[in-house]
Amino acid sequence: MTDIFDNHILCKRCNVRMKNAKVVRNGFLLRAMLCPKCHAKIVHPVDEQEYNKFINLKNKTFHVKMRLVGNSYAVSIPKEIVLFMREQEKIMNNMVRLCLDDIGKLSVNFVEGEENK
How would CATH label the architecture of 4-58? Predict the structure, then answer.
């Protein structure tokens, strides 16, 4: 199957051939086409769809139970979030980074690296 962005795309405003570009939104790198003349943008439909899934999950609140497991507490991560993380090809090992951000606020980071330190 060929990708729509493998073809020449003309800007509908000025009829100039658009160039490949990258757009960053909330940490997402989206493929796009950019008109060099009028700077009109077209984001790849598949990338736009994945970004919209992310926004929908981000705006959703999950209520999960905290359970005692041995000497620690466990919180389950909804399957919907885990499946999204796998779709994004994020590496998910058995270990995640857990931080106390503020009083009453924990953060769980699935991506390892310098940006989470």
Answer: Single Sheet (2.20)
